[in-house]
Amino acid sequence: MSGLRRILMVEDDAKDxxxxxxxxxxYNLANEVIVVRDGDEALDYLYQRGQFMARPGGNPAVxxxxxxxxxxxxxxxxQRVKTDDRLKMIPVVVLTSSREESDMVASYQLGVNAYVVKxxxxxxxxxxxxxxxxxxxxxxxxxxxxxxxx
Amino acid sequence: MTAHPDQTEPPVRSIRxxxxxxxxxxxxxxxDRPEREGSVRRLWYGAAPYLLAIMSxxxxxxxxxxxxxxxxxxxxxxxxxxxxxxxxxSAWYLGAGPGLFAAILSTLTYNYFLKDSHSFRxxxxxxxxxxxxxxxxVIMTRFTAVRRRVERELLQSHDGLQKEVxxxxxxxxxxxxxxxxxxxxxxxxxxxxxxxxxxAYSISxxxxxxxxxxxxxxxxxxxxxATALDEKSRRYxxxxxxxxxxxxxxxxxxxxxSRIGRAETRASTVSLRQLVNEVVEExxxxxxxxxxxxxxxxxxxxxxxxxxLRMVFMNLITNAIKFTRPRERAEIEIGSFEDARGxxxxxxxxxVGFDMKYSNxxxxxxQRLHRSEEFEGxxxxxxxxxxxxxxxxxxxxxxxxxxxGATFFLAVAPALRR
Lengths: 150, 418
Hints:
The complex is a heterodimer.
Chain A: E1 7-10, H1 14-25, E2 33-36, H2 39-46, E3 62-65, H3 74-82, E4 92-96, H4 101-109, E5 114-117, H5 122-139
Parallel strand pairs in A: 1-2, 1-3, 3-4, 4-5
Helix pairs in contact in A: 1-5, 2-3
Chain B: H1 5-18, H2 39-70, H3 81-94, H4 96-113, H5 127-224, H6 231-262, E1 267-271, H7 272-283, E2 292-296, E3 301-305, H8 306-323, E4 330-339, E5 342-349, H9 381-391, E6 395-400, E7 406-412
Parallel strand pairs in B: 2-4
Antiparallel strand pairs in B: 1-3, 4-5, 5-7, 6-7
Helix pairs in contact in B: 1-5, 2-3, 2-4, 3-4, 3-5, 4-5, 5-6, 6-9, 7-8, 8-9
């Protein structure tokens, strides 16, 4: 394995961010997580513009995407990513509270790589985030062009 | 919509008005006239035809005398023709009475004015003429009667047709209106359905997040302060956790329940026997340490949504297992029989049962008959069962007694049956 890679987490809820990071911390996965707080920021990061103008190039190894986001919502971010030739190889995992079938169908139709419903139970939540982190940051070989850990 | 009399009447009336009058003796049909117009007017209606008969005979006489004076006809020529016309016109247009009256009048007039005698006395040699007058009047009256009958029949069928046309038009109007109502209703329904969906969506999304945080941070608190917390504080955090989890379960169940009403059903032929066996197999791991004797009888094939029906039996069988927990040996029977309602599938257990006086509450949402310390659950299972069966056109009922077990019946609609 080639070590950790960048995880881009798009999550507007500070508490969810804290819980997720806590979960990842327990497995030393928190360091490589970049957190953005809405869809607009996520696109800024991906397109290296605005506050992310100066970031080093390359795509994140995985995009953990909430669906309900301020400004630009998750489905729109997903659509932009999957219709952009430079971005569409990024694995996208929808991590949401919504168990609604319409959201699932829309996400899969847009080409999402995984759809995870945030469990209410803390242990299950920690487990889900941990598994996601391990799988996408360690086990999965990301597409060429992803940011590698130095 | 009820038929408005004003809408049907005018066309019929207008037909009558344009047709000649057939009511014997009346030129102007009194149909349109209010009755209060007085006896003078009524008398005029009665007398008018006779006056007109006199006028026509007088006209015939006048013309005849004029022609004779002008020398167009001789004294002995064309003595009857004009009178015959007058009689014909009277009989034809005014009816039998005025016709006969004209015949008599013609006879007398003829006798007086066109004969040399200048008297009303009828000479024997003239009798055939008078008889001819009267016969002519009678024949004309007969013709008139026939014509009148034919025309009345025509008019009646015309009226009937007209009425039918109007009724049909009204019915079409009604149908159109009902259609519009229906469209409005379905639009409203769709709107409220959309609203409900949005509501369910926001519950599923927004209500769950704070809950997750409560659970998460209570858990973190428990971990962080594990050593610092005393027994009581630990119990408090555990209570917070349990309450939040329970609320999570309630939200999930409620959403699942509301989804049943909204989801489309995908019907296919389902082997109930196979489905029940599947569910029972799935339950086995939960039955460790329990003695359950299953009796699965004959079960029909049903035409229904398989995943929904699965939910029904999942709920019923889970309940049966749950409420037989105090029994050393649980007996659960699943079978079917036929009665007046059609096929009835039942699930029977020898569990704690329930008091029949609460049987009407069993199927309500969040209605529970046991304390949650005794038997866990959110109280939505049977409501789900009922809603699914009702969506398929069937009915549910339950029988039981305290500590005497419970039986749940699903009466299956004929359409459900295959």
